[in-house]
Amino acid sequence: MGRAFEFRKGRKMKRWSAMAKAFTRIGKDIVMAVKEGGPNPEANSRLRAVIQNAKSANMPKENVERAIKKATDKDTANYKEVLFEGYAPHGIALLIETATDNNNRTVANIRSYFNKCNGTMGTQGSVEFMFDHTCNFRIPKGELDPEELELELIDFGAEEVFEDEDGILIYAPFGSFGAIQKELENRNIEILSSGFERIPQVLKKLTAEQVADVEKLLEKIEEDDDVQNVYHTMEEE
Questions:
Q1: Which CA distances in Å does 124 have to 5, 84, 129, 229?
Q2: What is the structure's pLDDT at 11?
Q3: Which of 41, 59, 81, 148 shows a CA-CA span of 20 to 30 A to 92?
């Protein structure tokens, strides 16, 4: 298996349970998608993808519809996607994806977490190059063969296709999202969920005490309401 498979396995075991803010994150994603491309999912591929993710997260349909309606209100705050970079203790690189309606507040909060936990907030581009920006899709297993599907989707940018207990996962570079989404829809293959992730190119192994130092910072960052995702270069068991 490739890096995407190992990354997925590690994140599922360690980090996803800590980021128990799925509905809040999806609500912000809906607002950003509607502001960008309008409230009609048929004409807005980004919104279509977010609605799929909402369904996958068991978000009630009325919550989704309410969020779409709210996003069309001119008085609704528009969230801006901001990426923060830096180092946790022991040289662990961090990438922090946020969606904020008040950048000054978010900058101040993120900086305070680094300072309190012996980390260092970096400048733009200081660690982003250490991660591959990828897109992913989850589809039902059905009668599909992952190896055959991988060969068929290579022309659309797919790099890694594998099966887990919840279906088939497709990974590709960030820029291939639209092409793969369109091809899956053309084939009438149901997309259970989709999204973007940043996969570290190299991982660093730490001692148990060092891991605890890094976890302390990660927990503070992940608890922030503006934070959508956190990625790091620490090897996870």
A1: 28, 7, 10, 17
A2: 61
A3: 81
